[in-house]
Specification:
Blueprint lengths: L1 H13 L14 E10 L15 E11 L4 E15 L12 E16 L15 E11 L2 E2 L5 E2 L5
Antiparallel strand pairs: 1-2, 2-3, 3-4, 4-5, 6-7
Length: 153
């Protein structure tokens, strides 16, 4: 399982560099999705802990005002979990949690060179990104019964 998770993570990083999307279509709206893996990094996770990888995904929509300015809206979903059993010296505490995280963001992108489908045959341009986002999460302790960490119920 660990080898499969590491291979999947490497593929997620390298695969997008080989894809060419919308090469022959020039439009104002772009729709897309992202898939990947999420993991908790904190007190209960020192280093890369592949046992707790969870799937994540996002949907986004971009509106191209011009070849320089773009508005991007995105909604993301991911899961995280952690346990004290993975940390030497904390196993006796028997603390664990899991949470689903939902994020929404809206961003304005400025490309320093003209960029877009059929505008510039270059594969990249420097850009500036400014946005505002928020997220919601609801952590649960994994016990005999699910217990909400915030409310205690």
């Amino acid at each position: 399982m660990k080898l499969c998770s590491v291979f999947l993570a490497i593929a997620m990083v390298l695969l997008p560099s080989t894809l060419v999307a919308q090469k022959y279509f020039s439009g104002r709206n772009e729709w897309g999705f992202a898939v990947g893996m999420s993991n908790y990094y904190g007190d209960f996770s020192k280093g890369l802990n592949t046992d707790h990888f969870k799937p994540s995904g996002a949907l986004y929509q971009k509106y191209n005002f011009s070849s320089y300015f773009t508005l991007r809206n995105q909604v993301s979903y991911l899961q995280i979990e952690g346990t004290s059993n993975d940390v030497v010296g904390l196993q006796y505490q028997n603390i664990n949690f899991q949470s689903k995280v939902i994020e929404a963001a809206s961003m304005v992108e400025f490309n320093f060179h003209p960029f877009g489908a059929n505008i510039n045959d270059g594969i990249a341009t420097p850009y500036f990104l400014l946005g505002l986002g928020g997220f919601w999460f609801d952590p649960y302790r994994l016990d005999k019964g699910d217990v909400n960490i915030v409310t205690g119920k």
